[in-house]
Amino acid sequence: xxxxxxxxxxxxxxxxxxxxxxxxxxxxxxxxxxxxxxxxxxxxxxxxxxxxxxxxxxxxxxxxxxxxxxxxxxxxxxxxxxxxxxxxxxxxxxxxxxxxxxxxxxxxxxxxxxxxxxxxxxxxxxxxxxxxxxxxxxxxxxxxxxxxxxxxxxxxxxxxxxxxxxxxxxxxxxxxxxx
Length: 179
Hints:
Blueprint: H1 10-30, H2 34-43, H3 49-61, H4 69-76, H5 80-92, E1 96-100, E2 108-112, H6 114-134, H7 140-163, H8 165-178
Antiparallel strand pairs: 1-2
Helix pairs in contact: 2-6, 3-4, 4-5
């Protein structure tokens, strides 16, 4: 593995600041949710952006009876009652279907319908077109290197978030009482 860097060294500190600034820029751009809005307009105009988030969580949970209201709530970091309301909207729009779990009849599992699959496919197509446009002048090596480094970076963020989730929960109540 790489040796530990001195992130306080001027060149390293500058690199860290550029990454931080770029993360902020990306967060602000992602807030607009352009990809999702285009996909919804093309496939299911009655849906909202939040519905795509639920669909994505169900998709990532896979086909092995793992997609439930609880997994949606966990994946979106929302309370189960809110997850249940959003899922009910998607069921009424024929994007998701509730089924009885074959291993435990007390559990309901969530399954993506053909309409939901079409919406996911459209999201992926819009995203791919956007990425192809943004990277059209990149070399194959640059694209490959970026994809690997970006995946490593996002994996690191997820690991950090999981390992420090308790800290955020402790900070939030303190921040509310301080104001």
